[in-house]
Write a structure and sequence with these properties.
The complex is a heterodimer. By secondary structure, chain A is an alpha/beta fold. Helices cover 32% and strands 24% of the residues of chain A. In chain A, strand 4 (75-80) and strand 5 (83-84) form a beta hairpin. Chain A is globular. Chain B is an all-alpha fold. In chain B, 32% of the residues are buried. The chains are: A alpha/beta, B mainly alpha. The A-B interface holds A 65, 68-70, 88, 90-91, 93-95, 97-99, 101, 103-106, 114-115, 118-119, 145-146, 148-149, 162, 166 and B 150, 152-153, 155-162, 166, 170-171, 174, 248, 251-252, 254-255.
Amino acid sequence: MTIPQLNAERPLTDEAVIRVTGIQHSYHTARGPVPALENVDVSAGPKRFVSIVGPSGCGKSTLLMILAGLITPTAGDRYVAGAKVTGPQPDKVAVAFQDACLLPWRSALDNVAFPLELRKDPRAEREARGRELLEKVGLAGYADRYPRELSGGMRQRVAVARALIQRPAVLLMDEPFGALDEQTRMDMGEELLRLWDEIHNTVIFVTHNLAEAVYLSDEVIVMAARPGRVVERVLIDLPRPRPVEITETEKFLHLRNRLWRLIRSQE
Amino acid sequence: MTRLLHSTRDAQLAVGLLVVLLATWELLARLGVLTPETAPAPSVIASAGSDLVAGGLFFDVRITLTYVLVAFVLALVLGVGLGLLLSSWPLVAQVSVGFLTFLLSVPKSLFLPLFILVIGIGGDQKIAFGAFSSFAVIVMATMVGIASVDPNLVAMARSQGARRREVFSKIYLRSMMPTLLEAARIAMILNITGVLIAEMYVSRQGLGYLVNLYGQTFQVAPLLAVIAVITVIGIALNELLRWCERRQDRWREGT
């Protein structure tokens, strides 16, 4: 019988909530397959906030869709909570998409409660839970509004509320604040951290904004393009909670510059 | 979508205009300016109409309305079904859109004799011809509707665990609804035309038959009375579909 050793060196991925290994992915075009991702391994441990950054075309959004189970890679495996799975895992992995992706014909409340409707929860229950989530993202008074009556930031908050309604262990976010103006983007980041403090699940956050990645994350995965691959994993050892002022500290700027140099050196 | 009558004030104006027109017509007819054989006074048409009602006009109304509604449902089900089927293969979809555009531009009445040869002259032929007249529009709208569904919404629904059937009903069908309802309204007009032409061509009952009968026997007052009844039915069906459009379109209108 082997005695489990404390502090034994073991791969970080052992305790990963979500992990993909050996991912190869190519797109089929008229001129033949174009490699989008080559030999990519990505994992995130419990309660970790992990960002993925990289130049456009590095396949970071494709990678996120593979993590979500929405794209089946050409090769490679995907594990969620230790089990090898294919396809979406709605009760464990939720996605907040780039452009909010709200159903325009539904009110904010009905959008937030949509996942529970698919799960066939009773109406009263999903409405109560929907209102609870809307309140969490600061939209308590907007339950009956249609998406077109909400601002871009509000729509994105509704999308985040919808992604969180099933209490997922993993929240995948695909440039959720990319379409927002700089001020709103910072506000949303701050708010996301506050919310995350409360739910404290695993987040994988795709962005091309390096300051945003440093501000939000525990670690940042830097990718390079042609073909898409992971270059480095940078630990962000800034203390939490993080007030916005932290973005002006030397350490913050140092980390941001390091990410910047890593991306620059790949071009 | 824009409404024909924006307010009660517009509605009052429209009714007022109609009354003025009818009164002028009545006056001109009574003064002998209009020939009574080709343009009888509205009062004469009305009394011919009430004679028709007493003589069992509603029997014909019911027949024609039944044909129209059955043909409409048939065209809707077959049209949406075929549209979905054709959209499953991109290449087939591309080819068939061209074919459908061609079919839309051919006058359907040319095919009426063929329908009589193949199906006969009974009610099923009226229904088949009505459905045939309108179904290409539905197929086309279905295909256009499917192509316009936002793939991101489909991805979102799938990530939340929606099965194929749920993706279809909650994303596809709902996204396509405005296009489909608009097409349904056009299809209804084509469908009514189809059924009436089929009735006028060969039949012993229905409103189309009456139009043909009174036309051939030069009875203009009952002819115009029947046309008035058909007009009312047409407007009613159109308004019903517009009401459906508005109902499902509420999310588009601002607060």
